[in-house]
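Dear support,

Our group has been running a series of protein-ligand predictions, and this particular one with adenosine-5'-triphosphate is the one our PI (initials K.S.) wants archived with full inputs and outputs. We had some confusion internally about which version of the output was final, so please treat the block below as the authoritative record. The input we submitted was:
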Amino acid sequence: MSVILEARSVSKSFGAVTAADNINVRIESDSVIGLIGSNGAGKTTFLNMVTGYLKPTSGCICFDGRDITRLGPRLITRLGICRSFQIPQLFDTLSVRDNLLVGIGIVVSAEKRWKQAATISSAPAEAVERMIKRFDLQPYRDMLAGTLPEGVRKLLDIAMAMIVQPRILLLDEPTSGVSAEEKFALMDLVMEAVRKQRVTVLFVEHDMEIVTRYTHRVLAFSEGRIIADDEPEAALNDPEVRKYIIGETLHVKRVSDHAAT
Ligand SMILES: Nc1ncnc2c1ncn2[C@@H]1O[C@H](COP(=O)(O)OP(=O)(O)OP(=O)(O)O)[C@@H](O)[C@H]1O
Ligand SMILES: [Mg+2]
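Confirmed final output from the archive:
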């Protein structure tokens, strides 16, 4: 398998805080990677640097052999790296369908003309209907995003990232705020879409059941460093991971997540 994303000696500081400390990682095409780590470990910072929202203090990030370290978020999106957020970024006063149209529109306006949008092969309305079906959003199609249950909001946010046919999808805590009953159904839908569209996925997750079930490989972050990079079972049994990540911090976060739903 070919390497689609590579971080070389990537570091990021915010004043005295080191949010990324010499990150070296190579991600293969079509793989599903779980990013784990306790609060403040640097997971979101890593996603922010890959998507251009933050610039590393040093080091470089390559996508498909091209150095993207200094590119802006919009250009990186157009190249094929898309993301969803820890808190879904939706237009609450628009319907599900119109949110998806906006998702396409961001790329289209950047490309000036629809036909020039290299990453999209069919007309907008068809692409929207395909995503609505793929993510089981038919019952919510004409509802305003602001009225949707949290699990559906998460799905819509992910569908908005997938509609532009990315090569890499980055998800920040896709199951947080989603009930225990709904979380597997949500991940099944996302993974099915990912397989169909042949997308490489990196997702941040605090729920080890989800990590174990859906990932091929786990990157474990602690204080800005990657302390384990391995297949899920090996990574989750790593002594440092058990000591620093699968400890009380993680447990508390998961319990509070569930309490909030
Ligand atoms: N824009 C910023 N300005 C200053 N400090 C920041 C900024 N973004 C992140 N940090 C700090 O960098 C560290 C890593 O934060 P990050 O958000 O990447 O953690 P995380 O692993 O995503 O945590 P969580 O599980 O809570 O989402 C933290 O100490 C955080 O306070
Ligand atoms: Mg985070």
